[in-house]
Every structure is written in structure tokens, then in C-alpha cells.
């Protein structure tokens, strides 16, 4: 099942947790796809658990689930230039050059998610992290 919360990203947990409970999906089987400031633009990484890295959506999901131990497909957006506020940076539009790369990045993120489901975390990481 694929679910996209229709709320603000910062409140994602309010939709994820009830859905997981209704369908009896344990947190370790939940995959959250999200942007990540700590990865270069376009880089895809997979992981289980860990911190939120200042990401309010991840914080919301972790709080609602009562655990940080859910799977993640991390999509790099890079760090803001100079001293720009990260909170403002994540809300900005992509540059023209970045926009041109977005369709490919989305395809790679979808492929990474499929591999994660089909192969499991470790095997999928071996493939995806070599891209």
C-alpha cells in the first residue's frame, strides 16, 4: 500500500500512525520517503531508524509511532548556501538546473523503494548506495 498524507508535512505522523494501526503494519515495515539536507542534491540513501536531523515530518512520524525504527528513503536536497536558514531553504523552489534533474531523481527514488520492498534493507542498500 502507498499512502501520501494530505496534511502538512510537519504533521505526517497524524496520518501514518492510525493507518499503520488499522492495517496492523509494524513500524519496521513502514517506509517514509523524505528530503534530506545532509545528502547532496539527488543522492538517494536507505536506512532504518536514526535521528530526525531537524526534519519535522520525521519527528512527527516517530512521535506518533512511538519509535524511530521505521525505514527511510532519503532524497538529498543539499545544504543551503552560506548562512541561509535551512527552514526557509527547504521551502524554496528548485533552480532550473535542479528542476531538470527532478524526474530522474523521482524515478531513482521509486526504484530504490521497490528494491527496499523486494530485497530488504541490506541488499537494497548494497545496490542503491552504489548508484
TrEMBL record:
Keyword DNA repair carried by entry: no
InterPro entries: Pept_tRNA_hydro (IPR001328), Pept_tRNA_hydro_CS (IPR018171), Pept_tRNA_hydro_sf (IPR036416)
EC number: 3.1.1.29
Record-linked PROSITE patterns: PEPT_TRNA_HYDROL_2 (PS01196)
Signal sequence segment: none
Top-level taxonomic group: Bacteria
UniProtKB keywords: Hydrolase, RNA-binding, tRNA-binding
GO function terms (MF aspect): peptidyl-tRNA hydrolase activity; tRNA binding
Transmembrane segments: none
NCBIfam families found in the cross-reference section: pth
Family listed: Belongs to the PTH family.
The protein, known as: Peptidyl-tRNA hydrolase
The organism of origin for this protein: Mycobacterium xenopi 4042
Amino acid at each position: 500500500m502507498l499512502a501520501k498524507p494530505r496534511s502538512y508535512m510537519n504533521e505526517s505522523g497524524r496520518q501514518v500512525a492510525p493507518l499503520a494501526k488499522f492495517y496492523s503494519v509494524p513500524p519496521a515495515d513502514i517506509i517514509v520517503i523524505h528530503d534530506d539536507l545532509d545528502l547532496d542534491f539527488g543522492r538517494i540513501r536507505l536506512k532504518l531508524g536514526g535521528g530526525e536531523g531537524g526534519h519535522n515530518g520525521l519527528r512527527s512520524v516517530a512521535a506518533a509511532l512511538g519509535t524511530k525504527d521505521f525505514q527511510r528513503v532519503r532524497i538529498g536536497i543539499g545544504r543551503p548556501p552560506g548562512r541561509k536558514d535551512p527552514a526557509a531553504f527547504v521551502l524554496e523552489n528548485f533552480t532550473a538546473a535542479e528542476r531538470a534533474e527532478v524526474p530522474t531523481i523521482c524515478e531513482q527514488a521509486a526504484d530504490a523503494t521497490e528494491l527496499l520492498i523486494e530485497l530488504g534493507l541490506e541488499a537494497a542498500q548494497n545496490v542503491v548506495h552504489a548508484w
